[in-house]
Amino acid sequence: MAVLEAKIVVSASSDDDVFEKGKFKVKTITVRTSNASKPPVELFIVAPQEKGTYPVLLFCHGFMLGNNWYSYLLRHIASHGYIVVAPKFYGYIPISMTAEVRRAAQVTDWLPTGLLLVLPEKVNPDIDNLALAGHSRGGKTAFALALGRTEQKSRKKKARSIRDVVDVTQPSKFKAVIGVDPVAGSSPSDRPQPHILEYIPRCFNMSIPVAVIGTGYGNQPLGLLRPPSAPNGVNHSEFFNESKPPACYFLAKDYGHCDMLDEWYANMMSFISKSGTGPRDLMRKSVGGIVVAALKSYLGGSDDDLNAIVHDPTTAPATLDPVIYVKE
Amino acid sequence: MAVLEAKIVVSASSDDDVFEKGKFKVKTITVRTSNASKPPVELFIVAPQEKGTYPVLLFCHGFMLGNNWYSYLLRHIASHGYIVVAPKFYGYIPISMTAEVRRAAQVTDWLPTGLLLVLPEKVNPDIDNLALAGHSRGGKTAFALALGRTEQKSRKKKARSIRDVVDVTQPSKFKAVIGVDPVAGSSPSDRPQPHILEYIPRCFNMSIPVAVIGTGYGNQPLGLLRPPSAPNGVNHSEFFNESKPPACYFLAKDYGHCDMLDEWYANMMSFISKSGTGPRDLMRKSVGGIVVAALKSYLGGSDDDLNAIVHDPTTAPATLDPVIYVKE
């Protein structure tokens, strides 16, 4: 009955403009590890306030970026009828990529029992409709998790607050994976474990649909001292190349690697990572709209919005060029 | 009338097994620059002996490899009714990539007037049916030429034996381009001019069909001292990713970067570049068969052989995995 309710919600929103805020008022919730639901890491959650059952999106933040630095983007997505869960993988001291993927797997395992406990009353997660997304290194984390690459390295240290032994998360737990300017390392020859890229077209060993959003400035250095944030050979292009159909691709050619962050953080990051020149709200709306359109298509709602963007990319606020959708 | 003859020849060979030698006896011809036809560089040509008009394939050799080190492969191709022209871009001292592309363009310009003069009597080139192929760095040369990237750098030195001023070769001169384990440099950040890779899917600005053959061992080092011949990020995978449809892709997963050379040279190169363990004649037949199937499809013959390989890659003597054909 609850799932049926969710389906009504999704189809009811099919007339919305995905590039504008959706019809649902949303609520942001920060869940600390001390919470009774015992989340494995701190979570930033954005959910509709209206009663209903909504699909869930697990969103992985980028390297050294906060999980709540994407609040505009995540609110945009949630306003179209999705519950977005953004884990905080670490504080000021980053962890290894392998540990990050394990933490994301732990959050995935927590969702079926824990998420309901922290949501507003009568707002239910449709855990069977679970999608993954991530930005920058978090994009790789999302793909690694979708691929079930949560392998455990042998360790001498005893497990501490975060469990070191994690069940291998089966790819089938997720219905879709979305990379927002995903990055797999600093070059093809310098990539942290797990090595998910193999440099073979369509080699990703998973059957769920994929969406990849790239940025045109991500592969450019910022002056002489700052290397590119999303270097050639380890960025959006290769993630798309290695994805099996159905897979769609969008290049926000006039924007930079961090231009979908909230304005204050995007400004701060513009001293580290090359930023675009256009108004960033157009970028946030574009990324939000693409994510919503992909979720609506891949989670069993309507294909209409995704097909509309593919057929006429000028409907997006930012210039998207190229746009590719390989259906089979 | 001559062109009609060629069409008859092509369609007559459609029942052949592309992975075995074709029905035409072939002749090899070495044309030196002193020849009356005045080729811009020395050429190794393989052509059918039987009278007729045949499509032409310009084949670009790999870095520091001889243009006649592929004689088995080129004879295989020619035996199916093609005239193969393999320029020798340099002797013992390599030239720049830019100069190599210019020389390839010069050979292209020479073909309409010069080729007929050096072929056996009553063997005619169908210059309107001209395709490009190349191995390793020569694969990049082929793509650069197809893309019209024959730009001339400003030079202080006076033009010498090779003309430095070359008409920009229009992409439309060619009907197809085939990369045999093409390589664009040593890494995405270390690529010689012209920079044809842009790390954007389907960005190659040309409308002709593409075939890319990769090798499974090309991205592996040989011991500690020899880096990979076809490194990740600059190899077959990215060339395919940047090609617009129609484009087909084949990975000879059990073979190395130089395993399609003649046996003696392949043996020699196995001390420099990681070789596969299987019999190399299977690799040569597989590459030859794919090239023939692609030419038959792309030059207006029959699609049957290419479709047959795509639908059942086990028809090839070597293991091809994956095989991808994006038609549109």
From TrEMBL, chains A, B:
UniProt superkingdom: Eukaryota
Annotated TM spans: none
GO MF, one example: chlorophyllase activity
GO biological process: chlorophyll catabolic process
Entries under InterPro entries matching the protein: AB_hydrolase_fold, Chlorophyllase-like
Coiled coil: none
Name recorded for this polypeptide: Chlorophyllase-1
